[in-house]
Protein: TIP41-like protein
Amino acid sequence: MTAVKVHGGIDILRLPVNEEEHVFPPWHIKYTQSHILHSKCSKSENGCGDQDADACQFCIYSRTLEMPHMPDMVFPNNILTLKHRDGAILQFNALDALKYVANGKINIQLACAEAWKESRSENSEFLEEKVKPFDWTFTTSYTGTISGFQLEETNERIDLDKLRRKEKIMFYHDLTLFEDELHDNGIAACSVKIRVMPTSFFILLRYFLRIDNVMLRVKDTRIYHEFGHNYLLREFTTREAKVQDIRVSPALFVEPSEIAPHLPLTESHYHKLIIPSREELKVEEGTSTSVKNTNRKVYEEFYQRY
Ligand SMILES: [Zn+2]
Structure:
Protein backbone atom coordinates (compact mmCIF):
# COMPACT_ATOMS: atom_id res chain seq x y z
CA MET A 1 0.00 0.00 0.00
CA THR A 2 1.58 3.31 -1.03
CA ALA A 3 0.45 6.89 -0.68
CA VAL A 4 0.19 8.60 -4.02
CA LYS A 5 0.10 12.35 -4.53
CA VAL A 6 -2.37 13.40 -7.15
CA HIS A 7 -3.09 16.87 -8.39
CA GLY A 8 -5.58 18.70 -6.30
CA GLY A 9 -3.32 17.98 -3.39
CA ILE A 10 -5.14 14.92 -2.11
CA ASP A 11 -3.16 12.05 -0.73
CA ILE A 12 -4.74 8.80 -1.69
CA LEU A 13 -3.88 5.30 -0.75
CA ARG A 14 -3.34 3.20 -3.79
CA LEU A 15 -4.61 -0.20 -2.80
CA PRO A 16 -3.94 -3.28 -4.81
CA VAL A 17 -6.95 -4.66 -6.67
CA ASN A 18 -8.67 -6.92 -4.23
CA GLU A 19 -11.22 -9.50 -5.21
CA GLU A 20 -13.10 -12.40 -3.82
CA GLU A 21 -15.50 -14.93 -5.32
CA HIS A 22 -18.01 -17.12 -3.58
CA VAL A 23 -20.28 -19.77 -4.98
CA PHE A 24 -23.58 -20.40 -3.25
CA PRO A 25 -25.21 -22.54 -5.93
CA PRO A 26 -26.99 -21.50 -8.07
CA TRP A 27 -25.41 -18.10 -7.32
CA HIS A 28 -21.92 -16.89 -7.98
CA ILE A 29 -21.02 -13.76 -6.04
CA LYS A 30 -17.94 -11.72 -6.72
CA TYR A 31 -16.57 -8.35 -5.73
CA THR A 32 -13.54 -6.40 -6.81
CA GLN A 33 -12.20 -3.28 -5.16
CA SER A 34 -9.31 -0.92 -5.69
CA HIS A 35 -8.09 2.68 -5.69
CA ILE A 36 -10.02 5.80 -6.65
CA LEU A 37 -10.40 7.10 -10.17
CA HIS A 38 -7.44 9.15 -11.33
CA SER A 39 -8.04 12.85 -11.76
CA LYS A 40 -6.68 12.89 -15.30
CA CYS A 41 -6.02 10.61 -18.24
CA SER A 42 -3.45 8.01 -17.28
CA LYS A 43 -2.38 7.32 -20.84
CA SER A 44 -1.73 10.53 -22.71
CA GLU A 45 -1.50 14.32 -22.33
CA ASN A 46 -4.42 14.82 -24.71
CA GLY A 47 -6.58 12.08 -23.29
CA CYS A 48 -7.52 8.80 -24.89
CA GLY A 49 -9.05 9.06 -28.37
CA ASP A 50 -12.82 8.80 -28.80
CA GLN A 51 -12.43 5.58 -30.72
CA ASP A 52 -9.83 4.16 -28.38
CA ALA A 53 -11.25 0.78 -27.40
CA ASP A 54 -8.63 0.54 -24.72
CA ALA A 55 -9.33 3.94 -23.13
CA CYS A 56 -8.32 4.51 -19.51
CA GLN A 57 -10.96 4.59 -16.79
CA PHE A 58 -10.77 8.36 -16.40
CA CYS A 59 -11.56 8.85 -20.10
CA ILE A 60 -14.35 6.26 -20.04
CA TYR A 61 -15.97 8.03 -17.10
CA SER A 62 -15.51 11.52 -18.60
CA ARG A 63 -16.86 10.47 -21.97
CA THR A 64 -19.83 8.53 -20.61
CA LEU A 65 -20.94 10.97 -17.94
CA GLU A 66 -19.90 14.36 -19.35
CA MET A 67 -20.27 15.85 -15.87
CA PRO A 68 -18.79 19.28 -15.05
CA HIS A 69 -16.98 17.52 -12.28
CA MET A 70 -16.86 14.10 -10.74
CA PRO A 71 -17.32 13.34 -7.04
CA ASP A 72 -14.10 13.78 -4.99
CA MET A 73 -13.74 10.04 -4.80
CA VAL A 74 -15.01 7.59 -7.37
CA PHE A 75 -14.15 3.91 -7.07
CA PRO A 76 -14.39 2.50 -10.59
CA ASN A 77 -13.16 -0.94 -9.57
CA ASN A 78 -15.48 -1.37 -6.63
CA ILE A 79 -17.93 -3.71 -8.26
CA LEU A 80 -20.26 -6.29 -6.77
CA THR A 81 -21.67 -8.90 -9.16
CA LEU A 82 -24.16 -11.68 -8.58
CA LYS A 83 -24.75 -14.19 -11.35
CA HIS A 84 -27.40 -16.83 -11.39
CA ARG A 85 -26.63 -20.16 -13.05
CA ASP A 86 -29.43 -19.61 -15.57
CA GLY A 87 -28.00 -16.31 -16.73
CA ALA A 88 -29.53 -13.48 -14.73
CA ILE A 89 -27.00 -10.91 -13.52
CA LEU A 90 -27.23 -8.24 -10.85
CA GLN A 91 -24.39 -5.77 -10.50
CA PHE A 92 -23.48 -2.61 -8.61
CA ASN A 93 -20.89 -0.20 -10.00
CA ALA A 94 -20.07 3.50 -9.77
CA LEU A 95 -20.34 4.31 -13.47
CA ASP A 96 -23.95 3.13 -13.70
CA ALA A 97 -24.78 4.84 -10.38
CA LEU A 98 -23.45 8.17 -11.69
CA LYS A 99 -25.43 7.87 -14.94
CA TYR A 100 -28.52 8.66 -12.86
CA VAL A 101 -27.18 12.02 -11.69
CA ALA A 102 -29.17 14.83 -13.31
CA ASN A 103 -26.73 16.55 -15.61
CA GLY A 104 -27.66 19.38 -17.92
CA LYS A 105 -31.23 18.11 -17.97
CA ILE A 106 -32.59 19.86 -14.91
CA ASN A 107 -33.50 23.44 -14.25
CA ILE A 108 -32.30 23.36 -10.64
CA GLN A 109 -35.56 22.12 -9.26
CA LEU A 110 -33.66 20.70 -6.35
CA ALA A 111 -35.78 20.70 -3.24
CA CYS A 112 -32.90 22.14 -1.31
CA ALA A 113 -31.75 24.81 -3.72
CA GLU A 114 -33.53 27.65 -1.97
CA ALA A 115 -32.50 26.59 1.49
CA TRP A 116 -29.01 26.18 0.21
CA LYS A 117 -28.99 29.69 -1.20
CA GLU A 118 -30.11 31.09 2.13
CA SER A 119 -27.46 29.26 4.05
CA ARG A 120 -24.77 30.29 1.58
CA SER A 121 -25.85 33.85 0.91
CA GLU A 122 -22.64 35.17 2.47
CA ASN A 123 -20.70 33.34 -0.18
CA SER A 124 -22.15 34.13 -3.57
CA GLU A 125 -19.08 33.07 -5.44
CA PHE A 126 -19.43 29.58 -4.11
CA LEU A 127 -23.11 29.65 -4.91
CA GLU A 128 -22.43 30.62 -8.51
CA GLU A 129 -20.12 27.72 -8.88
CA LYS A 130 -22.48 25.24 -7.30
CA VAL A 131 -25.87 26.09 -8.69
CA LYS A 132 -25.49 24.98 -12.26
CA PRO A 133 -27.79 22.85 -14.35
CA PHE A 134 -26.08 19.90 -12.83
CA ASP A 135 -26.92 18.14 -9.63
CA TRP A 136 -23.84 18.82 -7.53
CA THR A 137 -25.31 16.59 -4.79
CA PHE A 138 -24.82 13.62 -7.13
CA THR A 139 -28.26 12.35 -6.13
CA THR A 140 -28.84 9.01 -7.79
CA SER A 141 -31.87 6.74 -7.93
CA TYR A 142 -29.70 3.87 -9.10
CA THR A 143 -31.09 0.52 -7.99
CA GLY A 144 -28.38 -1.70 -9.44
CA THR A 145 -27.66 -2.92 -12.96
CA ILE A 146 -29.72 -5.92 -13.96
CA SER A 147 -29.89 -8.19 -16.96
CA GLY A 148 -31.80 -11.37 -17.61
CA PHE A 149 -34.50 -10.77 -14.99
CA GLN A 150 -38.20 -10.20 -15.59
CA LEU A 151 -39.34 -7.19 -13.62
CA GLU A 152 -42.79 -6.85 -12.11
CA GLU A 153 -44.40 -4.74 -9.41
CA THR A 154 -45.30 -6.56 -6.25
CA ASN A 155 -47.17 -6.21 -2.97
CA GLU A 156 -44.83 -8.66 -1.32
CA ARG A 157 -42.43 -7.06 1.15
CA ILE A 158 -39.06 -8.08 2.51
CA ASP A 159 -39.54 -9.96 5.76
CA LEU A 160 -37.52 -7.70 8.03
CA ASP A 161 -38.25 -9.76 11.14
CA LYS A 162 -36.71 -12.73 9.43
CA LEU A 163 -33.70 -10.62 8.50
CA ARG A 164 -33.26 -9.47 12.08
CA ARG A 165 -33.13 -13.02 13.34
CA LYS A 166 -29.59 -14.03 14.10
CA GLU A 167 -28.45 -16.25 11.29
CA LYS A 168 -24.93 -17.24 10.54
CA ILE A 169 -23.28 -14.76 8.16
CA MET A 170 -21.42 -16.71 5.54
CA PHE A 171 -20.18 -13.73 3.61
CA TYR A 172 -20.28 -9.99 4.17
CA HIS A 173 -18.82 -7.10 2.23
CA ASP A 174 -19.16 -3.34 2.02
CA LEU A 175 -18.05 -1.24 -0.98
CA THR A 176 -18.06 2.51 -1.51
CA LEU A 177 -18.98 3.47 -5.07
CA PHE A 178 -18.44 7.22 -4.74
CA GLU A 179 -18.19 9.97 -2.17
CA ASP A 180 -18.05 13.77 -2.19
CA GLU A 181 -17.64 16.20 0.70
CA LEU A 182 -19.53 19.04 -1.01
CA HIS A 183 -16.65 21.46 -0.41
CA ASP A 184 -16.78 20.69 3.33
CA ASN A 185 -20.49 21.41 3.50
CA GLY A 186 -21.59 17.85 4.14
CA ILE A 187 -21.40 14.58 2.34
CA ALA A 188 -22.84 12.68 -0.60
CA ALA A 189 -21.98 9.01 -0.63
CA CYS A 190 -23.11 5.89 -2.42
CA SER A 191 -22.23 2.45 -1.14
CA VAL A 192 -23.36 -1.15 -1.35
CA LYS A 193 -23.32 -3.89 1.28
CA ILE A 194 -24.05 -7.57 0.91
CA ARG A 195 -24.66 -10.25 3.46
CA VAL A 196 -25.14 -13.92 2.63
CA MET A 197 -26.75 -16.26 5.12
CA PRO A 198 -27.49 -20.00 4.87
CA THR A 199 -31.04 -19.42 3.59
CA SER A 200 -30.91 -16.01 1.91
CA PHE A 201 -28.92 -12.99 0.84
CA PHE A 202 -29.56 -9.33 1.46
CA ILE A 203 -28.12 -6.29 -0.30
CA LEU A 204 -28.39 -2.65 0.70
CA LEU A 205 -27.42 -0.05 -1.88
CA ARG A 206 -27.53 3.37 -0.28
CA TYR A 207 -27.15 6.94 -1.46
CA PHE A 208 -26.78 9.32 1.47
CA LEU A 209 -26.76 13.12 1.34
CA ARG A 210 -26.22 15.53 4.17
CA ILE A 211 -25.97 19.24 3.41
CA ASP A 212 -24.95 20.69 6.74
CA ASN A 213 -27.71 22.78 8.34
CA VAL A 214 -29.86 22.34 5.25
CA MET A 215 -31.12 18.83 4.56
CA LEU A 216 -30.72 15.08 4.67
CA ARG A 217 -31.65 12.55 1.99
CA VAL A 218 -31.39 8.76 1.93
CA LYS A 219 -32.16 6.65 -1.13
CA ASP A 220 -32.09 2.97 -0.32
CA THR A 221 -32.41 -0.08 -2.51
CA ARG A 222 -32.88 -3.29 -0.58
CA ILE A 223 -32.65 -6.59 -2.40
CA TYR A 224 -33.59 -9.81 -0.70
CA HIS A 225 -33.54 -13.34 -2.00
CA GLU A 226 -34.48 -16.56 -0.32
CA PHE A 227 -32.59 -19.47 -1.77
CA GLY A 228 -34.93 -21.79 -3.60
CA HIS A 229 -37.29 -19.02 -4.71
CA ASN A 230 -37.34 -17.96 -8.35
CA TYR A 231 -37.31 -14.26 -7.60
CA LEU A 232 -35.62 -11.48 -5.67
CA LEU A 233 -37.51 -8.70 -3.92
CA ARG A 234 -36.31 -5.17 -4.58
CA GLU A 235 -37.49 -2.23 -2.51
CA PHE A 236 -36.51 1.31 -3.39
CA THR A 237 -37.24 4.17 -0.99
CA THR A 238 -36.40 7.86 -0.74
CA ARG A 239 -36.48 9.58 2.62
CA GLU A 240 -35.64 13.23 3.05
CA ALA A 241 -36.25 16.27 5.19
CA LYS A 242 -34.97 19.75 5.83
CA VAL A 243 -32.83 19.98 8.93
CA GLN A 244 -35.27 22.49 10.46
CA ASP A 245 -38.03 19.86 10.30
CA ILE A 246 -36.06 17.07 11.94
CA ARG A 247 -36.79 16.56 15.63
CA VAL A 248 -33.93 14.29 16.66
CA SER A 249 -30.41 14.99 17.81
CA PRO A 250 -28.03 16.24 15.11
CA ALA A 251 -25.61 13.68 16.52
CA LEU A 252 -27.54 11.14 14.45
CA PHE A 253 -26.96 13.07 11.22
CA VAL A 254 -23.56 11.53 10.66
CA GLU A 255 -24.83 7.97 10.66
CA PRO A 256 -27.19 7.20 7.75
CA SER A 257 -28.68 4.08 9.32
CA GLU A 258 -29.45 5.99 12.52
CA ILE A 259 -31.11 8.97 10.90
CA ALA A 260 -32.93 7.24 8.01
CA PRO A 261 -35.85 5.94 10.14
CA HIS A 262 -36.48 9.54 11.34
CA LEU A 263 -36.85 10.96 7.84
CA PRO A 264 -40.26 10.94 6.13
CA LEU A 265 -40.75 8.57 3.22
CA THR A 266 -41.22 10.54 0.02
CA GLU A 267 -41.02 7.83 -2.63
CA SER A 268 -41.14 4.03 -2.83
CA HIS A 269 -41.19 1.30 -5.48
CA TYR A 270 -41.48 -2.43 -4.93
CA HIS A 271 -40.47 -4.98 -7.52
CA LYS A 272 -39.92 -8.64 -8.02
CA LEU A 273 -36.91 -9.59 -10.11
CA ILE A 274 -37.94 -12.94 -11.51
CA ILE A 275 -35.28 -15.37 -12.58
CA PRO A 276 -36.37 -17.05 -15.83
CA SER A 277 -35.78 -20.77 -15.90
CA ARG A 278 -33.54 -22.40 -18.50
CA GLU A 279 -36.65 -23.62 -20.36
CA GLU A 280 -37.95 -20.07 -20.68
CA LEU A 281 -34.58 -18.96 -21.93
CA LYS A 282 -34.62 -21.67 -24.60
CA VAL A 283 -37.84 -20.30 -26.03
CA GLU A 284 -36.23 -16.91 -26.33
CA GLU A 285 -33.12 -18.24 -27.96
CA GLY A 286 -32.63 -17.12 -31.53
CA THR A 287 -35.26 -14.43 -31.23
CA SER A 288 -32.88 -11.55 -30.77
CA THR A 289 -29.40 -10.60 -29.72
CA SER A 290 -30.57 -11.26 -26.21
CA VAL A 291 -28.31 -10.14 -23.43
CA LYS A 292 -29.78 -12.94 -21.40
CA ASN A 293 -28.33 -15.52 -23.71
CA THR A 294 -24.95 -13.87 -23.75
CA ASN A 295 -24.94 -13.77 -19.98
CA ARG A 296 -26.09 -17.32 -19.80
CA LYS A 297 -23.20 -18.39 -21.97
CA VAL A 298 -20.76 -16.52 -19.76
CA TYR A 299 -22.25 -18.14 -16.74
CA GLU A 300 -22.17 -21.62 -18.21
CA GLU A 301 -18.54 -21.13 -19.02
CA PHE A 302 -17.99 -20.13 -15.44
CA TYR A 303 -19.87 -23.13 -14.14
CA GLN A 304 -17.88 -25.53 -16.23
CA ARG A 305 -14.83 -24.45 -14.31
CA TYR A 306 -16.31 -25.71 -11.05
ZN1 LIG B 1 -7.36 8.32 -20.94
Notes: The pocket of zinc ion is lined by residues 41-43, 47-48, 55-56, 58-59 (CB under 6 Å).
